[in-house]
Amino acid sequence: MCLIVTLIAVVGMILGLLTLNPLWLLFLLLPTVGYEAYRTQEGATTKFSSIVLLILLILEIILVLFGINFNLADFFGESEKYVAGYTVPLGDVKVVGPVLMGVLSAILIFRTYGKYTKWLSIVIAVSSLVAVFLINPGFLSEVLKVIAGGLFDRLSAF
Fold first, then answer.
1. Residues facing residue 82 across a β-bridge
2. Where are the domains of the chain?
């Protein structure tokens, strides 16, 4: 099942990149995120993270489909927020959604034990980066800085 939903997500990434339309990716990521929410076991934050991930994906589809723009940096009066142990850069709500999805998938990668749940989380994390690129290519560099910093922090803890 993981292989099937991964292939569907990869097709979504490819179609999204070929057409520069994030909706392909977002719609074809639904089976992966849905299966992740279904199979994630109850844990301190894991089941909650996977369910919020599914809700965020559905909201993201609605935002992109209807072209809704809302700048969260202006709303909060700051350029970044600290969310679940990660500093998340703020901007248009359509690009922050995939960033939060990436954060939630990182939580699942580091806090789950099952290899298939980790696998799906990695697919979702990569898809989130592609979604950020498709929605706002310039914002991707900010996200990559956050990821690099977070990985460095995690690796230096060992």
1. 87
2. 2-156
Spatial CB neighbours of 149, under 8 Å, sequence gap ≥ 6: 87
Residue 105 tokens, joined:
């998938």
State both tokens at 3: 């292989």
Whether the CB-CB separation of 5 and 124 falls below 8 Å is answered with no
H-run or E-run covering 82: strand 80-83
Please state, in angstroms and rounded to a whole number, the distance separating the CA atoms of residues 53 and 58: 9
Please write the tens of the pLDDT for every residue from 2-58. Answer: 999 999 999 999 999 999 999 999 999 999 999 998 988 777 678 888 999 999 999
Read off the amino acid at residue 71. Answer: N
Question: Angle 54-57-59 (CA atoms, 0-180°, nearest 5)?
Answer: 110
Question: Residues 6 or more apart from 30 whose CB is under 8 A from it?
Answer: 57, 58, 61
The owner of tokens 């960033």 is 99
Burial class (CB in 10 A: 0-12, 13-18, 19+), 70: exposed
**29 touches 124 (CB < 8 A):** yes
Separation in Å, CA 52 to CA 34, 45, 56, 149: 11, 10, 6, 24
